[in-house]
Here is the input.
Amino acid sequence: MRHSGLISLLVSWLVVALVSGCSPEKSVGLTFSTWGSIDEIEILKPILEAFTRQSGIPVELVHIPQEYAHKLRLMVAGQTIPDVMFISNEALPGFAERGVFRDLGPLIAQDPAVRLADYYQQVLAAMTWKGKLYGIPRDLSNLVVFYNKQIFAQAKVPYPRAGWTFADLLRIAPRLTKPGERWAIGFQPNPLVWTPYVWSFGGDIVAADLSRCTLTEAPALAGLRFYVDLRNKYHYAPSDEEAGNARMTQLFATGKLAMFVYGRWAVPNFRKKITFPWDVAPFPRGPAGSIVDTDASGWAIAAASRRPAAAWQLVKFLGSRWSIEQFTKSGLIVPSRPDVASSPAFLANIPEHSHVFLDVIPQGRPTRVPVAYDEITWELIDELGPAWTGEVPIEEAVLPLCKRITALLREAS
Amino acid sequence: MAAGKAAFAVPVSTPGPKRHPLAGEARWAWLLLLPALLIIGLFSLLPTLGSFAISFTSWDLLGPPRWIGLANYTALLADPLFYKVVLNTLEFVALYVIIDIVCALGLALALNQQLRGIGLFRTAYFLPVVTSMVAVSIVWEWIYDPRYGALNVILGWCHLPAIHWLSDPHWALPSLVIVSVWKSLGYNVVLFLAGLQAIPTEYHEAAAVDGATGWLRFFRITLPLLGPTLLLVGILSTIRAFQTFDAVYMLTHGGPRRATTVVVYWLFQNAFTYFKLGKASALAYLLFTVLLFLTWLQWTLRKRWIHQEQVS
Here is the structure.
């Protein structure tokens, strides 16, 4: 008898343990996922609170600071996808292609409160996949040249201005460089940063129809050659040993770089940490112009959401002028709305020439995102490594790389 | 392993009431095993079988898996990168296991002395084992830094050229081996120390009386009697080396130029970066086949290597 008592205790313990793990979660309101630093979340929270006050709909924030798109995919597989998701244009096609997001077109058509004309056309294009809009954009991300005004003044070099060229860059760089100590321009192996060199020379990484790699073609090679020469031939950019483990943002913030190519998201930190005067200028012009990316991120609704009407209310609220202004004031984003971009929320604080971020929009283009984007990006970073350090000529490094990328593109199609 | 048998041993029947003794005990045994069986079944066995099924599909997690038969396996075997990854892995395993065993044995011999404060040294060598690999990697990333890192500074003192430890395709893999050996050395030292202390001192005394030198005693007495420990350390190190992931993830991300992409890291990339679940599962089963073969080989050869195997 003693035994059976113990057995029933054990069994009931097991049942409780199993059932408590399986009970369905009670839905309290909308779930909303986003990435971003703690500072960004601090901006977001009051916005979500304002939404709940206004609509009576509680929002549960799912903060995923790292590996966001990967985690989201696992949530899709586990059928725990949030109602509303913050998404970048790089990650959008993979999800949109599989019907994870709701097509916002019909919702917008029925809702007079949302006017697409309130947003930059380029950002709407970046949030569109195969003719359908899947996200209300929050921001536009592009690249400009950040420069240290103090170094320019000391070297008696005029600041870079709209229309300046690659030839101008080569002309002023020696005066801005002090070997081993200070460099004219930053160097990053990240494709995001060197793609503008390729584009501005008239080349591209992949063909427009995403069928093959085009890095072996003459214009692309000219752009890559120019970029790699900045470092290995002229030494205007720091080598890996010179930079050590320091990132270009750190080198710039400590006054060791006269210029570097980067995006708006560095601004809040620079405002807090940098003591010398600094500003931004457009990327220099090449034979094909001055072309940088116009990427974007915005809010999408899960096709599987059980509360699409409430989700649409939240997305509308997040995309409203007031909400976008809150994000813009911190300096973190280039707003997706021209009305906010032309307001003091964007233009009032440093950098002085913030409008440069807006001026370069018309010539910008979104990053081409094939299905195998993550794998191709990895190959671009890894295979070009020896070319960036000068061990292998760039013309040689792109041959196996391009072959591999073309194979990945074919495999995906 | 062998110890598993002992764990399952049930005391031979005890005199008691008239009901069938085994029925009662078997019921109890199964009941007590149930939690463990459930956990292993749900979280180990089921996923293992599931991933075998997935290896015959194309699946990106977003849609339903699509049956493609053996295509993942044939594609892997036709991919030159697969062979590079396999070669990298074998190179890592060979370097790691050899260096690890030689260093651990050497250290164990040194630490097997009756000296004051020897406990301090034993603790010091065991510390990395209980330290997180992520923390270890961050420290080593600085040690390996080409400009400011301690290693290159020391090379500089000896007028040797600086080495790009993690960014030179020739050095990256050996660099990872060094970190991994340093991290796990203490564990094997403990195993070897236990093995050394199990060797009766009479053998050494008798040999010394007969005039055998230290080296001779090491090769003729210590090494043969350490056979079972060597086998254990060899198998454990080999398995650990095949599974290496965290150091690659933290220090090199499989680069430069795929020089440090080992099987498990590539598997992770395929599964959770490129979301090719089918290809990743196929890779896992190819790795499983290799590991199975190697373990079989080690067990078959043990009779030749080991002079005295005590049944535990």
Residues 21-54 of chain B form the longest helix (34 residues).
